[in-house]
Amino acid sequence: MMKKLIAGNWKMNGSLAANDKLLKDILAGLSQASCQVAVGVPAVYLAQCQALLASTEIDLASQDISAHEGGAYTGEISGAMLKEFGVRFAIVGHSERRQYHGETDEVVAVKAQRALGCGITPIVCVGETLTEREAGQTGEVVKRQLAAVIHTNGHCISEVVVAYEPVWAIGTGKTATPEMAQQVHAVLRAQLKAASEHADRIKLLYGGSMNAANAASLLAQPDIDGGLIGGAALKAQDFLTIIAAAA
Ligand code: PEP
């Protein structure tokens, strides 16, 4: 069976002092993690976190990556730059980036391609809004978002991680039930199977108010291979409980 992946997304939270304490507390409580663990930190703290996580079992993730390779793109950070700081995963197409920064399916697909080109695993986020769910469009929306990434990345699609994050569940305390999440994961798995003979090894994460109390039941679903964790990743004990539930 494939190892599960628990990835934290700190979003725009943290400080030098808070990051130091959080990572030291997580590392102190981490007993031989039997799943993969990563933390997605704000870009300015990559160097700090790289040093704190050196020779540990926790991998570093960025929260974004530029769609460009380099040059006149003020404020952007390239895959090659992220790689220099030991970044192993890049969160791509998070709903907050799609919503507040106008990232289209095509931009997200190119970002995934840039990550793969630098040896960084993209964690591609897909998910429907509440209006889309209520209109019965969930399957159609997530398939459209994933199709762009498949189209741009061809056979390399087997190297990505996909995170299903219903927008209405992110940061709201409303979680998809395990059955609702599994239903969408099965749709995504079928789409990946049609695109790649290696679809079984693609990790499908669930994200959206996953916490210490609900992680085990979500992670028990057949097509849920891990979690992308926002709020609960900022509390060492909660993050550790989720990691333990993924063992
Ligand atoms: C996220 O930001 O990817 C996320 C899932 O956030 P939360 O866990 O806080 O809902």
Level-1 CATH class name: Alpha Beta
Share of helical residues: 40-55%
- Number of strand elements: 8
Helix and strand run: EHEHEHEHHEHHEHEHEH
CATH superfamily membership: Aldolase class I
Low-confidence stretches: none
Ligands present: phosphoenolpyruvate
CATH topology: TIM Barrel
What would the principal axes of the Cα set say about the shape?
Answer: globular
Whole-number total of structural domains: 1
**Major sheet attributes:** 8 strands, parallel, barrel
What kind of assembly state do the chains in view correspond to? single chain
β-strand percent reads 15-25%
- Whole-angstrom Rg: 17 Å
At CATH's second level, what is the architecture? Alpha-Beta Barrel
Structure class: alpha/beta
Task: Explain the layout of strands and helices.
Layout: E1 5-9, H1 16-29, E2 36-40, H2 46-53, E3 58-62, H3 79-84, E4 87-92, H4 95-100, H5 105-117, E5 121-126, H6 130-134, H7 138-153, E6 161-164, H8 178-195, E7 204-207, H9 215-219, E8 226-229, H10 236-245
Parallel strand pairs: 1-2, 1-8, 2-3, 3-4, 4-5, 5-6, 6-7, 7-8
Helix pairs in contact: 1-2, 1-10, 5-7, 7-8
Bound molecules: phosphoenolpyruvate.
